[in-house]
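Q: Sequence in, structure out?
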Amino acid sequence: MIRTLVIDDEQPARERLKQLLVSHPDVAVVGEADDGVQAAEKIAELSPDLVLLDIQMPGASGLDVAASLGKPRPAVIFCTAFDQYAVDAFELSALDYLLKPVNRARLAAALDRVRLRVDASAGHVRSSATVTTGRDRELEQLTQATGMAPTRFLAKRGNRFRVVPATEVVAFTFVEGVTHLLTATEQLSMQPTLASLARRLDAQSFFQVSRNAIIRLDAVKEAKPYSDGTGEILLANGQTMIVARRRWRALLDRLET
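A: Exactly. Output:
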């Protein structure tokens, strides 16, 4: 069975999708959500195989939700009311989409693409590492194709997700195998790797100071050079970070612009 979550802020849209899915006996709807934060929580709780995901929702957008997903990442089919130009951009990503109002034939074709990911003879999804890498790459392609660098992030505090605007981010760090989002007052955990974040962030606002840290440029309060060519910065949360030698001059140039 393809365990599926239906996520849309409009109940009629969710009901229509569920009605259409009834004709696919290998698809089981295991839950639904009506906003981005609830969607992320449901995905973490239920670990579905497939998410039918609206784009424009309260709390966090479908893109925000997709970017927050951990491993193994479920298959995502975006449901969107975007115009044809935007849909063409989504096509560049290899993630599927459904244009609202959802068409029965189009949904069937999208589900066939999901089935191709499943090894029917073994009864399980292909190597999770391979599938996850592919989906991460698709998400990055989607971000680049649409020019939609994330403006907010879903991060966890305990078992709850919080929506953090990009303007509140001080830094992203990677410590002991976990990606963290730092604000002025707290540290939250995230699922995406630092490398994945680096490829999607707005290069005008964020800068990678070392292999394990990305800072928001506006959060830098002081910059102190060292004689060995490295440097130290003081951030808005009071934390200091060492900047790698090969990145120090580039950081100073960015801070001056």
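The helical segments are 11-21, 36-46, 62-68, 84-91, 104-115, 128-146, 194-200, 245-256.
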